[in-house]
Amino acid sequence: MGNVLSQSEIDELLSVLASGQGRTVEEAPEEEEGVVKPYDFRTANKFSKDQMRTLHFIYDNFASRLSTYLSGTLRAPCEVDVISIEEQSYSELSNSMPTPVIVAIISMPPLAGSTLLVITPAIAYEIVSRLLGGAGKYEMTDKPFTEIEVSLLERTIKKMLLLINEAWGKVNEINASLDRIETTGQYVQIVSANEPIAIITMNVKIGGVSDIINFCIPHVAVQPIAQNLVLRYWYSSIGTGQNANKEELESRLSGIQLNLQAFFNVTNATVSEVLGMRVGDVIQMEHRINEPITVKVEHIPKFRGAIGMCGSNYAVRIGEILKEGNANEYTDAI
What predicted TM-score, i.e. pTM, was given to this entire model? Predict the structure, then answer.
């Protein structure tokens, strides 16, 4: 629409043609040639979009689990959010690490090689301060970490690795373990400087302190399970995965022991009557002989039945299964 003439331009053109006066036509400027930029094949993206989306899904799940864990462990409100997931070279990550820093070298089989967890000093000292009963907001975040502080952080990181196993479990079973902890990033070299890595940046807020932690996953590490990180493959296996998880869950639950207790109706008595009771006294219960008794499973009314004998033991024969609505009514009455 930019080449359409306005009415005033049309009138001016007609008047020029009528008068016979010519106008110099300006030549259109030649288009500038495209700028050619050199391409460095070493910086080509190795992680596909599907793989990055799957990593985002995994670490979103991990972030919600980590905020719950930190809130309970540190007795402080904690929030963890995934800020970004981007591809960089390992040298960029290594050069951006502060000093001191907590760098956990992690093995995550079946992933190949090692991955990194980088915790900034502000978050590391906040965790240590809260674990030792302090109020947080530790100001000397530029001093070296002591052996006691590293030991406390090591215990916390091992708990975090259990959450990583759970977060990865929906995509691929892994078994993360801590190899060692370094406090200087320059001493850590898990891949070559030009190796592409996925950097998962997460913002961690503990009380009034907010800073970031980074997960570093080299491209070579995900090659053994690369096909599992494609969303198409993952969604195609959801159905079978759900059935397998259901069967595994049922097998685990089937062996859990529960407490069953049978209750008569509540009988009221005054304090003086209770204090006056002696051995041999008879308590008159407010429960008819032909009235069913309630059977509770872990304090939840589940059945109604009749009391009787089985050999030399008292027994209850189940006569009715209480539904959720009916169970609530019996709970109020018992």
Answer: 0.59
